[in-house]
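Quarterly update, task 2.4: adenosine-5'-diphosphate-bound model.
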Amino acid sequence: MTDADATPIHRALGLTDTELHEIVEILGREPNRLELSMYSVMWSEHCSYKSSRIHLKRLPTTGEGVLVGPGENAGVMDVGDGIAAAIRIESHNHPSFIEPYQGAATGAGGILRDIFTMGARPIALMDPLRFGPLDDPRSRWVAEGVVSGISGYGNSVGVPTVGGEVVFDECYKGNPLVNVLCLGILPVERLVLAKATGTGNLAVLLGSATGRDGIGGVSVLASAGFDEGSEDKRPAVQVGDPFEEKRLIEACLALLDASLVVGIQDLGGAGLTCAASETASNGGMGMDFDVAAVPRRELGMEPFEVMTSESQERMLAIVTPGDLPEVLRLCEKWEVLATVVGKVTDPDEHGVGALRIVDGFGGAVLADVPASSLHDAAPLYERPMAAPADLAERQANGPAAPTRDEATDALLGLLYDTTWVSSQYDHQLFLNTVEGPGGDAVVLRLKHPTTGADTGRGLALTTDGNHRWCAVNPRLGTAMTLAESILNLACVGARPIAVVNCLNFGNPEHPEVMWQLSETVDGLAEACSAFALPVIGGNVSLYNESRGIDIDPTPVIGLLGMVDELTQRPPGVTMAQGDRLVLLGDDLTGPTPSLAGSAVAWATGAKGGQLPPFDAQAHTRVVGLVRALVNEGGLSGVHDASSGGLGVALAEMSVRSGVGVNVNCMPGTAQLFTEAPSRVVVAVAPAGLAGLLAAAAAAGVPAVELGAAEGDRFLVAGAGELIDVAVVDLTATWRDRLPDALGAGTTQA
Amino acid sequence: MAARIGVVQFPGSNCELDVIEAVRLIGGDAEILWHGDAELQGVDAVVVPGGFAHGDYLRPGAIARFSPVMSAVVEFAGQGGPVVGICNGFQVLTEAGLLPGALQKNRGLKFLCAPAELRVDSTNSVLTSAATKGSVLRVPINHFEGNYTCSPETLAELRDGDRVVLRYVDNPNGSVDDIAGITNGGGNVVGLMPHPERAISALLGSADGLPLLRSLLDAASVSV
Amino acid sequence: MIFMLFSVQVEVSLRDGVADPQGATIERSLPHLGFDGVRGVRVGKSIRFEVESADETAAQAEVDDLCRRFLTNPVIEDATITLTAVDAASARG
Amino acid sequence: MIFMLFSVQVEVSLRDGVADPQGATIERSLPHLGFDGVRGVRVGKSIRFEVESADETAAQAEVDDLCRRFLTNPVIEDATITLTAVDAASARG
Ligand SMILES: Nc1ncnc2c1ncn2[C@@H]1O[C@H](COP(=O)(O)OP(=O)(O)O)[C@@H](O)[C@H]1O
Ligand SMILES: [Mg+2]
């Protein structure tokens, strides 16, 4: 970016010539360098969603209980008893590839701020993670660092990480996916929005001093793919400070409790530029922003560096001048630096508020732009899209089922216990965690955020993604992903109330990627309508590619649910000696099911075919039945058949309980490994069997008695033996896979 | 009148509200003691809770022990007042010199949040008086630096004085002699890495922390 | 009173005989990475700062005290202090 | 082939400009502990070990590689390496 450089500055900053032209139109003059850098960060893909916005509009966003939908820092649902739940999911994929520990840590930090910005106390994190294969050393290093980073930050900041996902696949080798979801609760009346109102009110910057962290990060890191050349972009890495964030949480919630805040906004992508312009334009006001007042960590920072820095652990609060002394006192108690950096100003006669960057109030004006233009005027692209040319051919080429001889090894190859990850996370803080990591979904006690009074009800959470399904068919795959989330909630007795999503895709300049994105949005919209669920927030992460190869489309769905009466723990993924095992949602009499998109097919590199059929109404019946059975309390175990199908579901119940399985009605390996939706295994004591089958019949849900939980071998047979392995061996394979690959303790902390 | 337990809050503490909830569940009163106050507000017992006081920067407990409240806690302990340090609180008490030894990084060099089985090896302390000697309690651990270390002389003193109150059945972190919790010579200051406040109901997975918390409440009630 | 500026490095290491899980972990993983012949790995901290003091004796005394009371836990750690006077010109820089 | 033994100290420090929350927190707390005049606190790691190598050049190359690939993430950290030959007598000790 030196003047000697032949590249014009706007292009070096990632703005196209057309975009520059638009800026000139808006300002009626050439922008100066500070203004240009502000537009460049705000109009980046990361902040403006310029490639995805036109698609996201198709998602249903309203429904019962929705207090805040997409567009704010987090979605907010009314969950009764005067309590609201705020939820958001975000990605930190690219930073985590470059510096796994800090990338993941700052990802957790960022999503937490989105939650307490709304006035909510963060009570849970979830971390859906996707890495390259375990036999790749770099992927192991990334996985180890990412998990250490989430552990190091989440534990220390004092928010439990209660669940998530851990997936390994070749397509994430050069581009891991690190998504983080955060849930918070607040008294409904404390809800605050990112708004600056009231002429003369003050913008107070809270938290860390500003350094050169992540300068250009939003435009450079988030909006361009990278491969070998990534080293150049490295100085942009940010370091997280969970202790600062913890004090920031306490200070901000104390300010909100004392009603000292008119509006508040976290500083994430695009830093101060985003927070100042967003609060001003949301309030229909302008702001004079004193860049000289911003406390700095480094000498000699230029105004454009201060305005676009992504230094972590900062918030911008709008307060009245009268409340300022009390604001400063509370911040001092929590050892949080607080500095007046802005003043809210009136809009002009057209209602347009100016964001003026000044060198001291009343001093030189360094930048002067319509605040709202940084957001509303951001470019909107209708990028070309096209289905893959070989789609029909791929669909016609379905995977073959493993032979009988291959079945045992195929099953063993799919098993891994994620305790290696989850035991590094505090998942119990706040005494809410009734069902934590390892279950089909998380269940948290719902206590009033300020009085602590127990409501006797629970919140349930799950995150799900299935890149295999979505690679085969993004539209149906996404719908099936949401369906699976709903079924996961049913397994813990919960009903779904709201959806958030994180859309992880490749390069949007590839027409096939835009087609995947568009199909995914349609699939999600259709499924949300079918299940009457609103989407209340999300995030889009594009340019997930390396060396020109895009990742498989990976929408990750976060689903929030309610347990209406939380009096007992859900049965869990287990079973007891002597139980009968019943499959719900399938009686195994249908035609041979498709293995397309299944883990077992992927393991052999067979990525074609057509997904098994999905019937939303049949799914709803299964969900209703499972939820009722769980809440009635008669089951000794329950587990949905998801990744790895029925085989993996049964194996997981076996290793978790230490009890063998004897199933003798399996028609073949296809039925065992298909990932057809809407299938659930339940374990019941023999006395409960008849009642269970009757309940299934009454609900119109196909069911079949699979066999027994007994002995110390895992036996599956039908017309002949399919699988026979000792439970101890099954357990060792399952338990040791991650420790063996990732086991050496962390050196990245 | 119910006994009052003061729960110290440093910037970075995070288990203080959990301890308060647990104490109230068993009929005690509990309140926050802010680290910057040099006063204990007349409480009958003090808990230094888990978390990351001052971010655990430098070493867990290294900065926290200089807080004004700690002088008051040291004085209170010196007068025989019941003081319990849980997890980070244990680390703070060792840094403050109220308990011997130090807590290093776990042997496996990983943070560990997991259930643990603890054997009650001494009931001569304010945290174990109401528990049964030899009984095994299921109480979660949640720490990176829980690997108890001390000199051979200190270990001999702890053993000879019946001051190892809790031992791990299956040592998760490399602690010398499987130590999970120790007490001072008077039995009134106890430090332990596991979290009894997390084991207060079947709904949360275990209620085995209750005998420990009840012991503390008993000790606190004596002075009421 | 005129103050002098000193640049200080404190190396905090585990005392002999104290087990070092971090060092052991690094040592264990090295052969897998193709590094042979490395042994006796010990991990400590290196803390650098500047201190203003009347003279070198005073500075040394202050840093000694800082190490003993705060920067180390004497139960398990030792400190090695390196003190260097910074000349006034560079101190202003 | 005869091998030589080297004693190595690696100081791993955060690169200039990279935030050091730990150092900043220590610095903020010092005045409360009664230590004034201390500033610019930065915390790094000090890793000591011994390495056997054919000669100094080979040892230096191996340690360089070890630092780059394992002991640091060059994205945020720098390593300063100090290599000292250990004479055979003391090496056996
Ligand atoms: N896939 C999506 N579905 C629905 N809403 C989305 C999606 N992606 C982003 N959003 C919404 O767009 C808004 C802006 O997102 P973003 O720019 O990431 O927020 P922030 O400024 O906090 O980083 C958020 O309210 C978010 O919920
Ligand atoms: Mg935000």
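Highlight for this quarter: The first strand of chain A starts at residue 66 and ends at 68.
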